[in-house]
Amino acid sequence: MMTTICLVDDEEELISNLKIELESLRPDWRILAYSNGMDALRQIIQGRVNLLVTDIAMPDMDGYELYWRVKDHDPSIPVIMMTGFGYDPNHVLVRAKSDGLKDVLYKPFDTERLIELINRKLTEGK
Fold first, then answer.
1. pTM of the model
2. Cα(56)–Cα(92) distance, integer angstroms
3. Residues paired with residue 51 on neighbouring β-strands, in sequence order
4. Measured between alpha carbons, how far is residue 48 from residues 28, 45, 68 in Å?
């Protein structure tokens, strides 16, 4: 069965380029890319996603809300958050980490680093 990775970021060019790059480096993964959290959540609820990579700051539903909706639906789905923000004690990342989030990538990041992190999260879940 093919592994399905869901990418969510309101920066459409970034998410499109990341999808293309991941598909070329990992043809055994199915990459779904969304520019908003609601579309991604629909796919996740339908049971079609093995791992979620989401941006934090998005207009319709931020990454924290998406994280909690996914965890409420299925706590076994690994979530990796991406952000372009540095450390801020009031940032949503601090709240998400205190609520169990373990993996954060700071933009810009190396795609190989993302692949390593995805592989680790998928193996941890088995």
1. 0.87
2. 8
3. 5
4. 15, 8, 18
